[in-house]
Amino acid sequence: MWCLISQANSVVFEVRVDPKSIGQECLEKICSHLGISNESDYFGLKYENARGEELWLNLRNPIDKQVNCHNHTAPLRFALRVKFWVPPHLLLQETTRHQFYLHARSDLIEKRLLTNDWDGVCRVIALIAQAESEDYDSLRPPHNLYMQASTVTSDCGTSKPTDLLQRVIYEHKKLKGMKRTTAEYWLLKEIADFESFGEEVFTKTQGNIYLGVGPHGITIYDKQTLEKQLISFTNIVCASSHRRIFKLEYFSCENKETVLEVKLDSSHNASSLYRAITEKHAFYSCETVRSAVTTQFIRDLKGTIVSIFNEDSTLGKKYVFDIRRTCREVYDNARRAIYQESQARLALEADSSSGGSSGCDGEQCKDSEKLARFMEAMTCKICMDNRLDSVFMPCAHVVACSECASKIDRCPLCRSEITQAQKLYMPTW
Omega of the bond prior to 394 within 30 degrees of 0, cis? Predict the structure, then answer.
């Protein structure tokens, strides 16, 4: 069966999949088509159910059990979207960064992502213009891009400045000589500092309350009072959903156990909220995804009856979560795979240039590979030049040099606030 895949810029392409295959196989075909070979874990596929609700496809379950496949002549429609937002320096492939950029651009223009101030709006519009049309040309100014991106707004509470266009042009001129790929990177770098970066939003029924589930935890927004309350993952005791009701138990700022109970538009939204909290907590905060998460499943009525007689039966089994790795594991796996691919390519080139004879034996190659991997591991993950010599407190992650550590206030790995960047004294080499 053919699947029509829409990207965030509305460009559609098609891939052929077996409807009985799991969603992961479809995602891998899509990523392969786009040239994303090792970082598919950041993405997901969205589809609309019969009620018109937009849901994430569970990648561990068969496609035909989730999407209506009765009409075999009509293609399935999926939207490729970023599911787990990470800082751009953790993205190793240019094709991955481009898809992140397309999704970020769409969210900014459609006001799903708001900047912190009007200066940020000017920088964002200028970066979009640089990424789309490169250097500013006074003879052919990209006013169409400016107009398209002018819907980008700020949540600072002040009205739009009258000289916004002049300020955007000034910012665009400052970017002269910047490559398109670099402009995409710096746009992602800009939005990574927004409070709502990476949030998935869920709206409460008949009310002004909506919940944002992001890398740090759950943010409760009140549209009437404009108040925000962040519940970090570490303060959550338990979460559950039953039909349209979502229930959350957590410790408040006063270290008092509090219960939040909200009624959502549908049971699908309530279960999606529960799933989003669990998956994002595992991805951003945990060292590894626990087996209790990966093995949790439900059965339909037929499968439940069969399981009474045969517990090992897979009939009617549907996994609740489709997360496989944490942020750290995705990054390490992608870096290792890309390194091995580059080494294999270099070995083939060396083999062909030497007429089929390799220049080193197996042990020497393994030692040099280990040394290269060690040197890479000890390099700052932000500038990729200096050595690691700083530890962030209290999360204790070591990912940066002292120079880069002084420029950031949140850990780029877990996004927790940095209270202190402690100097490390490593053995010299």
Answer: yes
Residue 216 CB partners (closer than 8 Å, separation 6+): 230, 232, 233, 284, 415, 416
Strands 2-6 and 76-82: parallel
Helices then strands (H, E): number in the chain?
12, 16
Residue with tokens 């439900």: 298
> What's the token pair of residue 418?
């940095």
**pLDDT value for 256:** 84
Residues of the chain predicted below pLDDT 70: 69-73, 154-157, 205-207, 301, 303, 306-307, 312-314, 352-369, 427-429
Give the strand pairing for 228-232 and 217-222. Answer: antiparallel
CA–chain centroid gap for 412, Å, is: 13
Contact partners, residue 266, CB within 8 Å, separation at least 6: 51, 53, 244
Would you list the DSSP string of 40-93?
A: GGGEEEEEE-TTS-EEE--TTSBGGGTS----TTSPEEEEEEESS---GGG---
Cβ-contact 402, 389 below 8 angstroms? yes
CA dihedral over 176, 178, 180, 184, signed as positive or negative: negative
